[in-house]
Amino acid sequence: MLAIIGGSRLAQLPILQITHRQVVRTPFGDPSCALTFGRIDSQNVVFMARHGYGNSIAPHELNYRANIWALHSVGVKRVLAIGSVGGIRPDMAPGMLVVPDNIIDYTWGRKHTFYEGPDRPLVRVDFTLPYDPELRRAVLAAAENSAVPCLDGGVYAVTQGPRLETAAEVLRLQRDGADMVGMTGMPEAALARELGLQYLHVCHIANWAAGKGASPERIQFADDALADGMAKVQALLTVFCAQ
Ligand code: HPA
User: Fold this and answer.
1) How far apart, in whole angstroms, are the C-alpha atoms of residue 12 and residue 136?
2) Is 50 assigned a ligand-binding role in the annotation?
3) CA 209 to CA 142: how far, in whole Å?
4) pLDDT tens figures, 135-154
5) Is the ipTM of this complex over 0.95?
6) What's the 181 CA to ligand 1 centre distance in angstroms?
């Protein structure tokens, strides 16, 4: 089964033909919301709104462990995680979709592992390539087949939030090698790896990162680019599920 995690701009997934909802509890607490099950084409899908259906849980307050555990516990094998980011690289303009190929984690204080407590074995999970290569290829192929423009590759910097970055912080991220910046990519991706799930981010560029673009003194979110971005995400998911 495929899981789709919707970001703050995608708390509902209109292309999903819903069959039922299920409340799932986990040893790590409650996930953000009940899981919504259904189909897109012939693909069985479970949808989760990362910030809750009311979009009320901030990035640093999400129970990432409960979310990923809940998906794993209902039989999910693959996760497509949608997230809004700010564009740092010049071609990462608002409205674009990007399938990143790596991550730099700047978050702190989040419950970031299942390997905790005295009676758990120490496991060093390989995270060299944080995204599943097979899933990356399949999503990029769907982008090509659906004629949805989608950039292939880029480094996703994950910041703590909930405030946006300063211009100086974005310059530092850029010097570190980051191409886009968001707040929810970690520890979600690492927790998925710990449970052996195939995981991939599909990022939607909502704005120029602080200090970038035509209005470097203030971040602007373009509402039309956002609506357009979500339409593109759904077109991409539709073709992906039909492949
Ligand atoms: N910074 C951090 N997170 C974000 C941004 C940003 O500019 N845009 C959307 N999520």
Assistant:
1) 23
2) yes
3) 27
4) 999 999 999 998 899 999 99
5) yes
6) 6
